Amino acid sequence: MTQHPGFLGLSGALAGEARPRIVLFGAPHGTVYPDEDPSGCAAAAASIRAASQEDAALVDNWDFDLDGPLFDGQPACCVDTGDLPTRPGDSAANRALIEARTREILASGAVPVMIGGDDSTPIPFLAGFADAGPVWIVQIDAHIDWRDDVRGERHGYSSPMRRASEMGHVAGLVQVGMRAVGSARAAEVDAARRYGATIVTARQVHAHGFAAAVDAIPEGAKIVITLDCDGLDPAVMPGVTARTPGGLSYTQVIELIEAVARRGRIAGFDLVELRPSSDIAGLSALTASRILVNVIGRIVRQA
Fold first, then answer.
1. Shortest CA distance to 58 belongs to which of 9, 25, 12, 14?
2. pLDDT of the residue at 33
3. Which of 19, 51, 265, 269 has the maximal Cβ count within 10 Å?
4. What angle do CA 216, 25, 76 make, to 5 degrees?
5. Model pTM greater than 0.85?
């Protein structure tokens, strides 16, 4: 693991023999496509950790997003174990590292929280839940990510939900925030619908809220949330590869996370596709940091 300033100043272990409930780690990996630089999201975790440092001394203060302090008046139960030692260009080995780390965290009884990396990193992250299923997936994204392959690559950033649909431990998919145009064609939309994925577009969320998304999840389900930063509107999340107007607001995202936590149990969370070189005045890193705070707070409040 690389050295780092821990998210919110959190260390890599708790004091004494205390066991963490939440383990955060970075996965600086981008899938290699011909004629593309895969390193655009490699520094995302570092930028988010840096953005969180301003609030590191405030974790015991009242957080109005959570209606209380982050750890709900209890000792800190989250650790940040740093970035995995990924190697640029070695996609197979990097995927193996991500899956193994996810399995290790789950086996310890903790909830894994991953900061990617591009939107291929959820594939091994979700694969790591094979012994912890069945799980439902809630994807927040501008795109449905159902391509079977792109230029021969089946584990790239256009394919995570297609690969997830093939995992036996995945019980269902709810996809929220879709809008405009991406790599999906009619065939991919048909494949998602045939699988039974619930697709709730950004326009539907703005018009009617996200009840249709939450109601599609069985009560008490174990849920993994995967959040592509381009699911948010570029007004609050400009640091992405594909800026697309009409996305979800920060408030809508944290309200959806809260509603999902009330519907079932958050079993895992990943945040991917933050591109620091495209950020404006650190706004994306700050927004991503606040989303992670809300995720940690909601997991803390789970029974």
1. 9
2. 82
3. 269
4. 85
5. yes
Portion of the chain with pLDDT greater than 70, in percent: 99
Euclidean distance between CA atoms 245 and 181, whole angstroms: 11
Helices (H) and strands (E) in the chain, counts: 9, 8
Domain range summary for the chain, segments of one domain joined by +: 7-300
| CB contact at 8 A, 288 and 7 | no
For residue 272 the two structure tokens come to 């991917």
Which pLDDT value is given to residue 166? 98
> Which band of pLDDT confidence, cut at 50, 70 and 90, is reported for residue 134?
very high
Q: What are phi and psi of 137, to 5 degrees?
A: -110, 130
pLDDT tens for 186-217 read 999 999 999 999 999 999 999 999 999 999 99
Task: Give the integer Cα–Cα distance in Å for 36 and 17.
Answer: 45
* Residue 105: strand, helix, or coil: helix
Quote the tokens at residue 205. Answer: 């969320």
Nearest to 70 by CA among 57, 54, 82: 57
Per-residue pLDDT, 149: 94
The torsion angles phi and psi of 18, rounded to 5 degrees, stand at: -65, 140
**Helix 44-52 × helix 283-300 angle, to 10°:** 80
Q: How far apart are CA 28 and CA 298, in angstroms?
A: 25
Task: Report whether CATH 3.40.800.10 matches the domain 7-300.
Answer: yes
